[in-house]
Design goal:
By secondary structure, the chain is mostly helical. Helices cover 76% and strands 0% of the residues. Helix 2 runs antiparallel to helix 4.
Length: 157
């Protein structure tokens, strides 16, 4: 049974599950950001635990396949080294899960922070969609909206 589950979750299958699995969280964030469901399932630790488990599973599979984890640190040596790392599917799925997790966490933070300033959920749609697709740009859009509602600029919070 465990062997079948292990074999089912190949890198390609895990990629599809992670991409499809994160969509309900984003739909809740975009269409019902202030709901009880959002607080329980999206802006809590729940999605990060799921994605963290997927990440740990990929690390485990990579370890069993003798993945060279030390070589990952070469990404700091230059753009060519990053390109070489992305040619490895194990590294690519680790990066992708990392990217999706950070974007979802940022989307949850945007929703939580917007509630402090009573920002309309209609104004959050564009920053949340942008955060889903292009993380940092969505955060910048949210900060521009937040500055207007907070009527001040804080460098820390």
């Amino acid at each position: 049974m465990i062997e079948q589950i292990y074999n089912y979750f190949s890198i390609e299958m895990l990629y599809y599950w992670v991409n499809l699995g994160v969509l309900p969280f984003w739909l809740i964030l975009i269409f019902a950001p202030q709901s009880h469901i959002s607080r329980i399932f999206v802006t809590s630790i729940f999605p990060i635990l799921i994605l963290g488990t997927a990440y740990t599973f990929v690390l485990y599979k990579s370890y069993l396949n003798s993945f060279d984890f030390i070589n990952n640190f070469s990404l700091y040596l230059g753009i060519d080294n990053i390109s070489n790392l992305f040619s490895n599917n194990n590294f690519l799925i680790m990066f992708w899960i990392h990217f999706i997790s950070i974007n979802l966490f940022t989307g949850g933070w945007i929703v939580n922070d917007s509630q402090k300033f009573q920002i309309s959920k209609m104004l959050l749609i564009i920053p949340l969609l942008t955060t889903y697709l292009i993380g940092p740009l969505g955060l910048i859009l949210y900060w521009l909206i937040r500055i207007f509602y907070a009527k001040s600029i804080n460098l820390y919070d």
